[in-house]
Specification:
Elements (H helix, E strand, L loop, with lengths): L1 E5 L2 H19 L7 E5 L6 H12 L8 E5 L1 E3 L10 H8 L11 E2 L8 H14 L5 E5 L20 E4 L2 H7 L13 E4 L2 H5 L4 E5 L5 H9 L17 E6 L8 H19 L13 H5 L4 H21 L20
Parallel strand pairs: 1-10, 2-3, 2-6, 3-5, 6-9, 9-10
Antiparallel strand pairs: 4-8, 7-8
GO biological process, one term: glucosamine catabolic process
Keywords: Carbohydrate metabolism, Hydrolase
GO molecular function, one term: glucosamine-6-phosphate deaminase activity
Length: about 325
């Protein structure tokens, strides 16, 4: 699993948008071999969507051979309603692209048979060869799509009852009135998301820092459904600095050190977009500036020091427990 940390929401949005753009371009999609993209709703991907739309308008990216599958939809809310996820994605994303309308796949929360609608959706994903890249966001409790805490990690697209906390959180989109928020939704399952060949999760904001810590530092658990990404061979999380507040210092330093090695020591020219080494010969011939070496030493020292502190092995131990450094950053 990769953890990419950027300074703030704008930098996270920039990184993810450029990543999606390059993934589509490198894939070289065609009518017979489309790029299949899974998409979330909500505030987390908005900045990314705006940037992708700009790429498309500038002629740097095309969605003509991209097929999309949205994560979820409310049950009983008219498609034209301003808070339906179809309307959200259309207003904030699809209408700004050159995407073919027939290539937009969305769950129908008003279908006569909701269970059959869920089976149809799963079959549609299989028919196009599976999802190449599934982008997602999470809730403060670590749920992905509408897979609330307690959801099966092998779940598929289905009808889901929303948790009370989720209803309260979403009431801000319904004039602050809880009674207006739908209580049921159709959602892709955890396994549906994890079946994608690559999964990219956007996590931003201090209010999601506990969820990130559980996802990265604790075990896979159905009470934090996004933690299933630990089992994915190509799992990627992109977050901002605020979201790392509950992570151990050594965890943050470790993932930053990996990125430093990739960029400054191995070299991006020797790596694929997904971080896989393409050429070892280029690495052996690479020469480093003193600045790169100093930065690498600084990061390595910080990782070692924080690890020693967290493990209680620092040389300047004290008998006063209250003086010991905390494992969490304050």
């Amino acid at each position: 699993m990769r953890l990419v940390i950027r300074q703030d929401y704008d930098e996270v949005s920039d990184w993810v948008a450029h990543y999606i753009k390059e993934r589509i371009i490198q894939f070289q999609p065609s009518k017979d071999r489309p790029f299949v993209l899974g998409l979330p709703s909500g505030s987390s991907p908005l900045g990314c969507y705006q940037r992708l739309a700009k790429f498309c308008k500038a002629g740097q990216l095309s969605f003509k051979h991209v097929i999309t599958f949205s994560m979820d939809e409310y049950v009983g809310l008219p498609r034209e309603h301003s808070q339906s996820y179809y309307s959200f994605l259309w207003e904030h994303f699809f209408k700004h692209l050159d995407i073919i309308p027939e290539n937009i796949n969305q769950l129908d929360g008003n279908a006569a048979d909701l269970d059959e609608e869920c089976r149809r959706y799963e079959a549609a994903i299989v028919k196009v060869g599976g999802i190449e890249l599934f982008v997602g966001g999470i809730g403060p409790d670590g749920h992905i799509a509408f897979n609330e805490p307690g959801s099966s990690l092998t779940s598929r697209t289905r009808v889901k009852t929303l948790a009370y906390e989720t209803i309260i959180a979403n009431s801000r989109f319904f004039d602050g009135e809880v009674s207006k928020v739908p209580k049921l939704a159709l959602t892709v399952g955890v396994a549906t998301v994890m079946d994608a060949r690559e999964v990219c999760i956007i996590i931003v904001g201090a209010h999601k820092s506990v969820a990130l810590a559980k996802c990265v530092e604790e075990g896979v658990n159905h009470m934090c459904t996004v933690s299933a990404i630990q089992l994915h061979p190509k799992g990627l999380i992109v977050c901002d600095e605020d979201t790392t507040l509950e992570l151990h210092v050594k965890t943050v330093k470790y993932f930053k050190s990996i990125e430093h090695v990739h960029q400054s020591m191995i070299g991006t020219e020797n790596l694929s977009l997904q971080g896989q080494v393409l050429s070892t010969s280029g690495i052996a011939k690479r020469r480093y500036t003193q600045e790169e070496l100093d930065k690498g030493s600084s990061i390595a020292g910080a990782v070692a020091a924080s690890a020693a502190i967290c493990d209680g092995d620092a040389e300047d131990k004290t008998d006063d427990v209250d003086q010991r450094p905390s494992k969490k950053r304050k």
